[in-house]
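PROTEIN ENTRY
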Amino acid sequence: MQLQGTIYIDSVFLLNLVMDLYLLALVSKVLGNAATYPGILLGSAVGAAGYCIILCLPGTYMLKILFGMIPVGALMIKIVFKTQGLKELLRAEGWLFTFSFFLGGFIIFLKGKIPVTADKSNRWTLLAGLGFAGFALGKKILEVCKDRRRNHFCKVKLPGDEGIVEVSALIDTGNGLTEPVSHKPVAILEEEAWEHLRRWMRPEKFKVIPYHSIGKDNGILEGYEIDTIKVKGNECEKQYDKVIVAVFKGKVSKGGSYQMILPPEL
């Protein structure tokens, strides 16, 4: 005996439209792309329609989803984010399917924990609600990650030749550079910014900083001890005394977004 069920295509379309809205909003957030609301809505509608068409095609469900949703997902990404090049397209689609798996797993988990989802009369509404809960959780996680990444950068104030010199700094947790005699952590400042700090280039302040890096077995950096620096983060400003700063002959950031590298101790 073959069992048959009824699929309400309008309900399937609406549910997938809502889920695609959540997914594309998460992708937009992680990519930092200024996607428009009409664009996200259009992309979601295309995705929902594509899913319904794939569902009606012959073949096993898993194969249809696997081979059918890849081009549909690519079309959604192209509509919403207007990606340039294959690499950018694949990256965005990778995030789309990552969030899809996350959201699907989250809904399955909650369905097993909430008995009310067994009520089939309002199943679609409940699924959309569970999807929103997953979307809210994913959005919160992305915001926390973004805040932590932002906190890796700060402002540093140094006493210069003609007043305070303020530079942007990266807090590098991998910076284990130390002065060999005192074993104090060493900050690194690019040479162009150091031009305004020549008052500290005195013999009693001079330090020799040996270092090891990828591509160069050994090297020596010229360093100087600065009496006081101030590190300003998002929440407060802290003062550090007797800080050793090494001079880097070049740019510490290729894009010029920061001019100094701080050790995590600072």
Summary: The domain at 153-262 is CATH 2.40.70 (Cathepsin D, subunit A; domain 1). The CA atoms of residues 192 and 250 lie 8 Å apart. The first helix runs from residue 9 to 31.
